[in-house]
Design goal:
single chain, Nuclear Transport Factor 2, Chain: A, Beta-galactosidase, Chain A, domain 5, 26-stranded antiparallel β-sheet, 5-stranded antiparallel β-sheet, 13% helix, 37% strand, Cu_amine_oxidase_N2, primary methylamine oxidase activity, copper ion binding
Length: 753
Amino acid sequence: MSLKTVLILLGLALATIFALVCVLLTRERSPRSCQQLAPEQEDMEDGQSLVFADLTAEEMSQVVRYLQGHLGVPLVEASRAKPGDNCIASVDLQVPPKAEVLRFLDAGGARPPREALAVLYFGKQPEPNISELVVGPLPVPAYHRDVTVQRYGGKVPYHRRPVTGQEYTDINALVQRELGKAPNFLAACCESDGTNLVTLTTAPRGFKSGDRVTWFVLFHNVAGTGYYLSPVGLEVLVDHGDLQVSRWRLRQVFYNGRYFASMGDLEQEFLAGALEVVRLKQPQADAVLGSMKPRRPPGSPGPQQFEPQGPRYSVRNNRVTFQGWSLAFGMNPNTGPRFFDIRYRGERIVYELSLQEALALYGSNCPGGMSTRYLDGSFGIGRFAYELVRGLDCPYTATYVDRHYLAETDTPKTNQNSLCIFEHDSAVPLRRHFSDSQSFYYGGLRKNTLVIRTISTLINYDYIWDFMFHGSGAVEVRVHATGYISSSFLHGRGTDYGNRVGPHTLGTMHLHHIHYKVDLDVDGQLNSLETQDMEYEFVKDPWSSQNTIERPFLRRARLQREDEAAFPLNAPMPRYLSFVSPNSNKWGHPRSYRIQIISFAGKHLPTNSSMERSISWGRYQLAVTRRKEEEPSSTSIYNQNDPWTPTVTFADFINNESITNEDLVAWITVGFLHVPRAEDVPNTVTVGNSVGFFLRPYNYFNEDPSVDSPDSVYFSSDQDPRACGANPLACLSSAAACAPRLPPFHFGGFLNL
């Protein structure tokens, strides 16, 4: 081998060694591998959050077995119980009193006993009633106590009970029998013998306490699509108040603007040629109004988000931790998602954040539409939160959690993967600045947010419930509305109540009002309420005294009593409203959290309405009251079927008590008016149909707490921004190699229907 060849090979070897060293040095500054990193763990003692945990399926079963053996009355399974039977309607967690929980969490006190709240319908009694029993201790029950009178001031009348699935089955059987009395009319109007028509319930059920009389709207049913857009113009009023199903009756019939005493009378009018009939063809599945089936073949996949080194949040039992945040989550089968002990950097910000109610109030010139005021808690906001579709309802790689419930059955049910948790890159900076004067640099932080989501399908509507926790210490609560609009048959002056969206379909106007409970504990339990807003003052300019300046100044006020802190819906409200602590931050200002509401609510029901008190929470966009254990919720599932004598009246919570240095609760109403238009077919889109509120730190810290985020980016003009050590964004090319292998798609959401 010649000397020249040796020198060439030696040079190549040295170049290779140099290149390898450069690669290794670069890798040292970038993520070392795709190995998953363990997320930060909270210091809280293991298992403390279980004091808030939803009941397990086994605990629910234990409660059922205990009740079956200790009440001394026969119990029929609710799924087949008739109105004249006794049954267990539901079983849920009995949340312990706040004082007991705080002694346990903060002062080393005993763990509160774990208990369940069982709702029973006693129909086979001399005086039928609804009773609520606390059963404990779990997991092996040994006692129960009736808390109905304690909670509501008396027994709950039986007619207030929500309608069960078995009751709807019996009503549908009655309707089918009645439809059979008008065969010629049905064939002419609807190409039907009645079997291809479905009913949609309305609520409330009558005009006075004790009524159980419901309008049912009939639609053409087409498999694989929403029937809500295909009304046939026929509606029936059913009296189902008697304990004996055989005594239920069809009270009245409505068709195309006219009322009839019975289906037989309607048939006679038709045969006599005295009835104007709109002849509808049975919709075909491939052309039905509102079909959601794709019209084009799939295109290329859209963007996907993933965590290069695994989730940066931790989920353990019912507790989530993420970059300083920690919280306990759960699901009430009636009212839906609830959160407890929300802490940031170890300090409790919110003791309880929970959904309370969702109201949908309609207008129409048909009886079913004009009388509809759905209170969705009575149907089951949490119960009907079904399995989420991976990759669409939530990111494909989100963490999915099962939820168990026991309602209208003696056997617990599971909604698999019905709650998701994920870190969301909002694709917008949380904060940033590009400096182009004096010194040149860039600093910023991505807006990465922890999101906890569940979606409830309540008949036609789908509500997307989002709870978000930001790196700035802010909590964001948001609800999106989607799903199908409800509709009426278009006749007469129908467009006074909405827009025509199909050949004979009126998209009926309605409002969505949502109510939340927020038990803030800002730097301790004792808080006050402070408002701030701007005014202008006209002053002589101090440097010449010849001109006038309109100078904005800050007007601060402390609200002393509950009546001052009840802000009517849609009325002007102070732009800054905060829960303040007696303690100050470094700069001498009270440590506070600000409530910022984003809402486009419709008008509240007039207060002279006979049912207004049942939804009196809707009078206020915000009401702040002293927290009381005997005021756990702003409404009741029993308000739906007796709104004229409400079981819980929120307006009574506001009685002008002092709210200075007290344990306070904020009750927040958000919502929007929805006038359906052609673009609501097939579905209402989420764009522009979201409302909510923020809880934002206001002088709570000495500076923005996100400055401690490990995701911060900063580089100056004298640095090389391509260097991974100086700029973590330069490391992303290697992170892209860590794209995960996605698990196979699976969906079992139809199994429990």
